[in-house]
């Protein structure tokens, strides 16, 4: 029940956004994430955008994994 | 989000499992995944099999359906029997056993119970059926509670007078405090729930390290997220430090979601709450502030509720505190199965007993 899914904001009208999740579009409330902008990736839970997803941080995590691999490969 | 090919994933997983085994050595560790979604992810990815036997993962009280007490279900059922009431609920609640019935059974007998995916759909129902009192069953932790609060704020703004909420929201940090202060938990570290943390941030967990010297890591839900989090916990334990670390930084900011926290605290305030199988915990639940009490179903719609009875033999309380594996419950897989659950932990797929039943086949003796 607590699971949230990521989606991309296609359109915004006041506190309502159209968001694409895996090829399907849905209407989602922005009341809990009012600063959301078109083009953002957000996490959606129970009909609400609840957190912006930082793509840069996703990249960093990826870089960390790569580093660890290197470490493992050299061991 | 994380673009890695299979080979990269395999290598990273190898690295983490190798390091985990090395760090654990011959010592035994018991780590608790607090969140039901983690429990399912751990089973699906076969993570228990990747960990050495002396690193044990136990499930905690983080499945909202599981911790909702019988009394709440009995109240919802009593409301559903009233002819002027419509119940709006997440689907998970339907099969949860109350003292003598379930919402599914009441629905089959003609009660007006609608499944919704969002609190706002409950509000929409209220607008569409003005002659009904629509009661939204609000359960869940800090991820879900702000969505119920938002619906209440909207109902207030739009002057919807027939929308009510029956609240049984629970807060994660007080439950962890209760587990640690009971002294019988024997948990060495916590995998903290990623999506709850996306709302509340890291600060509310700091007491874990400061007061209880227990390491904690906010964890994501991919198999690699979980392995990395276990690795981070063992690294802390190995160095003898305890802090709150954030493995899920790509989603969870340190400060959480301030707008959601504000919506939540505008409508709700903390209060003592009853947890199924665990008991009454201080400041572990939410009640509406006075201004919003006109939306509280309990305070506004009279109802007579049957006397609450607990299911005989159900060990949900011990399972939810990580003291017992579901397979040690004498009812597990016998009288208690997902098709006819005796306790709440067998109902939602996020429930520990249901996850063990569905994914634990052949590994029940672990
Ligand atoms: S197996 Fe069923 S009866 Fe036993 S603890 Fe789990 S839910 Fe309760």
Structural features, described:
The complex is a heterodimer of chains A (75) and B (366). Chain A has one helix at residues 55-74; strands at residues 5-13, 16-21, 24-29, 41-45, 48-52. Chain A is an alpha+beta fold and 75 residues long. Chain A has a five-stranded antiparallel β-sheet, with no helix packed on it. Chain A is elongated and about 45 Å long. With 366 residues, chain B is α/β, with parallel strands linked by helices. In chain B, 39% of the residues lie in helices and 19% in strands. The longest helix of chain B is centred in the N-terminal third of the chain and has 19 residues, at 6-24. In chain B, helix 2 runs parallel beside helix 16 (352-359) and helix 7 runs parallel beside helix 8 (145-157). Chain B has a five-stranded parallel β-sheet with strand order 2-1-7-8-9. The model of chain B has no long low-confidence stretch (mean pLDDT 91). Chain B has helices at residues 6-24, 36-44, 47-50, 64-67, 70-80, 103-108, 119-128, 145-157, 172-181, 194-200, 206-212, 223-239, 258-267, 297-300, 316-320, 352-359, and strands spanning 29-35, 55-62, 85-89, 113-115, 133-140, 163-169, 189-193, 216-219, 244-246, 268-275, 279-288. In chain B, 53% of the residues are buried. Chain B has 16 helices and eleven strands. The interface between A and B is large, with 34 and 53 residues. The site of iron/sulfur cluster (SF4) has 15 residues of chain B, from helix 15.
């Amino acid at each position: 029940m607590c699971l949230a899914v990521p989606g991309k904001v296609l359109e915004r009208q006041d506190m309502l956004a159209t968001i694409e999740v895996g090829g399907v579009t849905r209407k989602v409330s922005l009341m809990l994430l009012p600063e959301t902008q078109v083009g953002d990736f957000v996490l959606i839970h129970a009909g609400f955008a609840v957190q912006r997803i930082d793509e840069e941080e996703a990249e960093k995590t990826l870089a960390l994994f790569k580093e660890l691999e290197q470490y493992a490969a050299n061991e | 989000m994380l673009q890695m090919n299979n080979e990269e994933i395999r290598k990273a997983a190898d690295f983490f499992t190798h390091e985990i085994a090395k760090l654990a050595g011959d010592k035994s560790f018991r780590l608790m995944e607090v969140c039901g979604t983690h429990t399912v992810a751990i089973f699906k990815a076969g993570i228990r099999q990747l960990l050495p036997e002396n690193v044990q993962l136990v499930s905690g009280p983080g499945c909202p359906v599981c911790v909702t007490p019988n009394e709440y279900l009995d109240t919802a059922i009593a409301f559903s029997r009233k002819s002027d009431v419509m119940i709006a609920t997440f689907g998970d609640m339907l099969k949860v056993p109350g003292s003598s019935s379930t919402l599914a059974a009441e629905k089959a007998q003609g009660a007006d119970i609608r499944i919704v995916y969002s609190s706002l759909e409950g509000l929409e129902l209220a607008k569409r059926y003005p002659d009904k009192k629509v009661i939204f069953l609000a359960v869940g932790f800090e991820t879900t509670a702000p969505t119920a609060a938002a619906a209440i704020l909207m109902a207030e703004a739009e002057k919807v007078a027939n929308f009510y909420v029956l609240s049984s929201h629970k807060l994660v940090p007080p439950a962890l405090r209760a587990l640690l202060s009971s002294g019988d938990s024997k948990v060495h570290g916590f995998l903290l729930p990623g999506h709850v943390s996306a709302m509340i941030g890291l600060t509310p967990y700091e007491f874990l390290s400061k007061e209880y010297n227990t390491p904690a890591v906010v964890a994501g839900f991919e198999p690699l997220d979980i392995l990395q989090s276990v690795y981070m916990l063992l690294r802390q334990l190995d160095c003898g430090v305890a802090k709150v670390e954030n493995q899920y930084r790509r989603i969870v900011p340190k400060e959480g979601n301030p707008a959601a926290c504000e919506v939540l605290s505008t409508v709700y305030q903390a209060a003592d709450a009853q947890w199924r199988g665990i008991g009454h915990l201080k400041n572990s639940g939410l009640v509406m502030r006075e201004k919003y009490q006109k939306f509280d179903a309990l305070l506004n719609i009279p109802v007579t509720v049957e006397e609450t009875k607990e299911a005989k033999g159900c060990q949900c309380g011990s399972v939810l505190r990580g003291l017992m594996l579901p397979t040690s419950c004498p009812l597990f897989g016998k009288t208690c199965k997902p098709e006819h659950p005796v306790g709440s932990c067998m109902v939602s797929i996020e429930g520990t007993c249901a996850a063990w039943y569905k994914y634990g086949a052949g590994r029940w003796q672990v």
